[in-house]
Amino acid sequence: MSLRPRWAALPVVLVAVFMTTLDFFVANVAVPSIRADLRPGDAAIQFVIAGYGLAYAAGLIVSGRLGDLHGPRRLFTAGLALFTLASAACGGAPDATTLVLARVAQGAAAALLAPQVLTLIGALFPGADRARAFGWYGTVVGLAGMSGQVVGGLLVAADPLGLGWRACFLVNVPIGLAALALTGRLVPRVPGAGARTGLDLAGAALVAAGLVGVVLPLVQGRAEGWPQWTWPCLGGAALTLAAFVRRQRRLAAAGREPLLDLEVFGEKGFAAGLAAVALLFGTSAGLSFVLALYLQDGLGLGPLAAGAVCTALNLGFFLASPRSARVPRVVGPLGLLLGLGLLYHAGDSPYLVALALLVAGAGMGLVMSPLLSSVLASVRREHAGAAAGVLGTVQETGGVLGGTVTGAIFFGSLDGGWHAATRAALLVLVVGALGVLAHSALRPRRAASAPAMSLKPNRCSSP
Length: 463
Prior knowledge:
Layout: H1 3-38, H2 42-70, H3 72-91, H4 96-124, H5 127-158, H6 167-170, H7 172-186, H8 201-223, H9 230-253, H10 270-298, H11 303-320, H12 331-344, H13 350-377, H14 384-412, H15 418-442
């Protein structure tokens, strides 16, 4: 296949990335309007936000396996259709219960999409083109993060057709329908690994329950002051995930196909790459958490001014990410460390904080795409879907853990004042950035030379 159809497919795939990333942010902006319109209780309004993330985290490994079995394009199409339908259900929700259920469906659809996007990019683009494609992936993630609050605010304020907060979800419908129409024409068919047996449903239930048991108490527990139920929930999650691992080993030993082939963790460089991904996303989430508190409660900035300062982080990411393939791999982590160092010494100046965030965001933009590319390039084709599912799960849980640990350090140091608490939290983030730097300096140079996976022809391959 020539490269032109490959590059024509990339915008279609990245539209899904943009929509699913944007929906992590636009719902936050819509919350006040949702509260005024639907009159939900506090628990319901929390699950409008948390339900999306929980369903997303719980479904990634299962959807990665489904992509291995049935092919990533088929699962991408199904996920895109479900996300579009769930967005319409969110926009038309008559009450809070319906909205929460629709948000959970959105999160499940996003989980169905995410591993397929990573697998398709890894399969369609060989050699140096893979790094370029992942550079565009990082750019789209940064753009969605940078514009999420703005897009949500504009839609609520503009109130198109009197839709109010509903427009934040309904805007996905025409975009999703257009992407669906183009998927069959522009996205090549990548073969799945096939299967001797069906999906391990018991394993799917175990891993989903275990991941929810980890993410739910870390998200809700911190917000509610760590009530007693959080600790049994975390303990039960550990036991459930251990049972999942035992089941996968037992199935593999019996010659049956497990939901997650644990051999993927034996692929050279994969486990170390996952650790670096967890540190990177944990550092990013921890930084965002600290900034939200420090800028408004510490420096006394209003929400608009604080949002403008935080935009510098996403702006740096957006500007640097497309250039990640052309710079030495250690430059990104060094830039992140430099940005955190500048932030440590920024004091009360919002302008210095914005400059530090610009540098830190550029560092993240330079490191993310090569890191994701190298992690996926380290595994064989038959493990691609499983690797993508695990990678997405590590991104999500790494971010939750990063925000939780950083928040605990921040609040634990608050007796010394806002500056002392912020600096204590930043030291934790520096440790995470040093871990990413160590991985970038030591990992083998495999991503640039890894070939693309074989493709089955479809209409895209016709002259």
